Amino acid sequence: MTEAVANATDKLRYDRGTVLLHWTTALLVVIQFALGEMWDWPAKPVHHLMVVTHLTAGMVLTAIILFRIGWRITRGRRLASLLSPVDRFCALAMESTLYMLLLAEIGLGYAWRWGAGQAISFLGLLLPSPFTPFSSGTIWWIETLHSWNAWLIVGLATGHAAAALFHQFVIRDHVLARMLPAGTLLPRTKP
Ligand code: HEM
Ligand code: HEM
């Protein structure tokens, strides 16, 4: 591929930072959900390890989401829409909702742990609660919202992924290819 073709193809995709941040977020969300839904199955030492992993990965996810929103606003590449106005509206509504639900899930996670008077463990390093514990009624609400919001995020992300696959393989407009690393799925551009 000549340099000109490589550059043209490059501009059809999101920049490397956006792609990396998108797939790291997706992976962490799946890990978080799987840990939270499965940690009641094994005995205590493994259960404890899974909770600590959830808390550590939760802190990494916090940093990634905040960085990602900053990157999106400042340096992330903007691409012309490949979608019809209605599809574009639906995609933007879904993506903004996912950002908001992820931020809410993160806030609820810290509120649950710290509000119950427990420290958050980052790779075994204990970060104590910066505020006084909440009442048990408030903690019940936080637990319930964190648990149901997790299902909502996973449900919406599944719909979002299905839409991306439908666009890529049925409508064939290369929407998914734009969010993949260079060299995957996009047709070669003529010089
Ligand atoms: C998208 C990200 C996240 C998802 C999908 C998620 C999902 C879950 C799920 C499914 C549970 C189990 C709920 C239940 O037992 O009914 C849970 C529990 C919990 N999560 Fe998250 N979570 C996320 C992020 C976070 C973050 C960022 C934190 C805080 C750093 C956090 C802290 C907690 C705590 C403290 C529990 C309860 C642990 C225990 O039972 O001792 N979560 N989460
Ligand atoms: C938990 C999983 C996921 C979350 C939270 C998530 C979230 C998001 C968000 C917030 C955006 C907007 C990016 C921006 O403009 O800032 C986005 C874009 C995108 N996502 Fe996901 N995503 C997930 C999984 C997936 C999967 C599994 C696929 C594909 C199978 C996918 C395909 C795409 C594509 C193609 C775009 C770009 C759409 C466009 O150009 O308008 N995502 N995603």
TrEMBL record:
Topology term for the membrane: Multi-pass membrane protein
SUPFAM superfamilies documented for this protein: Transmembrane di-heme cytochromes
Cofactor(s) of this protein: heme b
UniProt entry keywords in alphabetical sequence: Cell membrane, Electron transport, Heme, Iron, Membrane, Metal-binding, Transmembrane, Transmembrane helix, Transport
Cellular component annotations (GO), alphabetically ordered: plasma membrane
UniProt main location, coarse: membrane
Membrane-spanning ranges: 20-39, 51-71, 91-112, 119-142, 148-171
GO process annotations (BP): respiratory electron transport chain
Record's keyword annotation contains Phosphoprotein: no
Domain called Cytochrome b561 bacterial/Ni-hydrogenase: residue spans: 13-181
Listed InterPro entries: Cyt_b561_bac/Ni-Hgenase (IPR011577), Cytochrome_b561_oxidase (IPR052168), Di-haem_cyt_TM (IPR016174)
PANTHER family linked: CYTOCHROME B561, CYTOCHROME B561 HOMOLOG 2
Family (UniProt): Belongs to the cytochrome b561 family.
Protein name, as recorded: Cytochrome b
